[in-house]
Amino acid sequence: MQYADMLRKLFAGIELNVEDLLFLESFQIGYLPDRAPRQELAALLRANPVIHRYLVSMCPSVVSFLDEILLEEGTVDKTIEQNCDELLWEIADLIIYSKYPEAYDKNVDFPWEINEIVSPQYLHDKVVIDAGAGPGKISFLLAQYAQTVFAVEPTGGFRRLIKQKTLERNITNIYTVDGVLDSLPFPERSIDCLMTSQAIGWNLQAELYEIKRVLKPDGCAIHLFSDADAVSESVKGIHDILTSFEYECTRIKNDSGTKLKYHMTMKGE
Ligand SMILES: C[S@@+](CC[C@H](N)C(=O)[O-])C[C@H]1O[C@@H](n2cnc3c(N)ncnc32)[C@H](O)[C@@H]1O
What is the third-level CATH fold of 108-265? Predict the structure, then answer.
């Protein structure tokens, strides 16, 4: 299934419109050159100059990409509405993270038990990062066992949701932090364990060096992929790089598909 079709199915009931692009944060706009279909984005920008100005003012590094696609010839077989709809659903995950974080939390499963990820006994005196935390599903699971959990998440909508849930549940050991995986706001050798779920690979090699920088000697990193069958091509590229950084892969197959866990322990001193 194409990525946009999967998102339409997962978030059926949500309607996206062109103004939703104004919810994109600057780091997300930086992903457009890799993520956005060129012709459809160019058609949308020609019809909506305010959106063009917003993208450029929030993320000047995309100027040359936008100038380039606007110079390309578009085909005339699609209406402006079709172009906008296709563009919006191709990047719908980015919009939904910012505008509908509760819908992501409700509709996207986190199919892992704590014992499949890490031993609860190991966690009891540990400081752990959940990086690319989204609505914080791992953070809330880990907080039951770990001393301290830092939920690192660059999208404001998700950070607000995590904070709201920690207050509602009276949880005092989850701290929400703005940050990205390739520039983690933590000192060297300060963290016992860093985990990600469906969140690594925006700038993979730099992220893996950054993870090694913040981990203590004997610390560990764990990366989870919940549905490796659905995204086998992208996971394949990530697999090769992770194994070259000395990660071991565990494959867990069940009726709903294949889950992958990558695990690496830092060498002690
Ligand atoms: C597919 S969601 C996964 C969320 C959560 N970990 C889960 O399993 O439900 C990907 C998350 O990575 C975040 N993200 C995007 N770019 C990132 C980056 N460069 N570093 C860390 N997280 C990033 C997104 O905002 C989003 O919350």
Answer: Rossmann fold (3.40.50)
